[in-house]
Amino acid sequence: MPRLAVLGYPVGHSRSPAMHNAALAALRMDEEWSYEAIEVAPEDFEALVRALPGEDFAGANVTVPHKLLALAFADTASRRAQEIGAANTLIFGPEGTHADNTDAGGLIASLPGSPQGQSALILGAGGAGMAAVWALGAIGAKVGIWNRTPARAETVRIEVTERAEQFEVEIEVGVVEPEPEAAVDLDLSGFELIVNTTAVGLGGEDPFTELPLRPDGFAPGQVVVDMVYSSAPSTLLAAAAACGARTVDGIEILVQQGALSFELWTGRKPPLDVMRAAARG
Ligand code: ATR
User: Fold this and answer.
1) pLDDT at res. 204
2) Segment 239-271, tens digit of pLDDT
3) Is 81 exposed, middle or buried (0-12, 13-18, 19+ CB in 10 A)?
4) Hey, which of 196, 198, 202, 254 would you mutate to test ligand 1's pocket, going by the most ligand atoms within 8 Å of its Cβ?
5) What residues are annotated to the active site?
6) Element (H, E) at 105
7) Residue 228: other Cβ atoms inside 10 A
8) CA–CA separation, 271 and 59 (whole Å)
9) How confident is the model at residue 188 (pLDDT cuts 50, 70, 90)?
10) CA–CA separation, 272 vs 268, rounded Å?
């Protein structure tokens, strides 16, 4: 009876169990396989991960705040997990625990077209921002990072540049700030892709007060991604859509990364529509 789980702290809000169990049921794998949420504090993470294979677990998703620990504790890791410096997927096998990362692939798969050669603006320099910078930069987008605290954007730029040298990957990345005469807002006209990885919107904040963006600053031809999950379109995506831009929300990225993890564990491609419907609840 192979079991799967998402490991997080907290994890009660996770939509992964509903999404993966729906996919298992659609493929008639649910008599054998199951997927659950396990809340685990950072200090207990290593012991839990070591115990899971003995309790029939075949693999796990790893979410905030364990993605760095997951990579550190694994016996082996995919090149993409090593490049990004974080793991969101663990696979338990006879040779031990293997760490992988499907966040980058999930972001790329959620886009309407390849971002290769495009200019991308990443808002935010936390863990999600770092992963987005790497995912887009490594596929050949030219990436600009904006962060409320500019020093953190600079730290991500330096870390990505150093890691790119280490792994011999070409990445073009810089820090962007509004022009002084524009006062507070960024000129988005040079960007084909805009990705919000900040927490703005999660607690109902107004993105147009917190971020250097204007609601009418988007244009047709742009793709705007908001990693914040919400059932209704976020304020940011609603404004982008009203300007004629294409939009991608956090649930679509969750579905795409989940589908890639599902395939790593089971060897089967899950039905995306079933996962989408379950994730949207
Ligand atoms: P994660 O790992 O999920 O990306 P994080 O490390 O807590 O989470 O980072 C949160 C991101 O949201 C940061 O880029 C943060 O900006 P700061 O580095 O300046 O803190 C950004 N963020 C959170 N609240 C914000 C707000 N009200 N306005 C602008 N940026 C905000």
Assistant:
1) 86
2) 999 999 999 999 999 999 999 999 999 999 999
3) buried
4) 198
5) 67
6) helix 103-110
7) 22
8) 19
9) very high
10) 12
Q: Where are the beta strands (DSSP E) in 124-280?
A: 142-146, 172-175, 193-196, 223-226, 246-249
pTM to 2 decimal places: 0.95
Beta strands in 126-216 (DSSP E): 142-146, 172-175, 193-196
User: Coil, strand, or helix at residue 35?
Assistant: strand
CB 202 within 8 A of CB 228: yes
- For the record, the structure tokens of 222 come out as 């742009």
Token pair belonging to 221: 């031809």
Helix (H, G, I), strand (E, B), or coil: what is residue 237?
Answer: helix
Give the H or E element holding residue 134: helix 127-138
- Helix (H) or strand (E) holding 108, with range, is helix 103-110
Q: Residue 260, SS3?
A: helix
Q: Nearest residue CA, atom 18 of ligand 1?
A: 149
Atom of ligand 1 nearest to the CA of 124: 14
| 227 alpha carbon – ligand 1 mean position (Å) | 12
- Location of structure tokens 């990364």: 257
The SS3 assignment for 225 reads: strand
Residues 6+ apart with CB under 8 A from 78: 98, 99, 100, 101
C-beta separation of 174 from 150 below 8 A: no
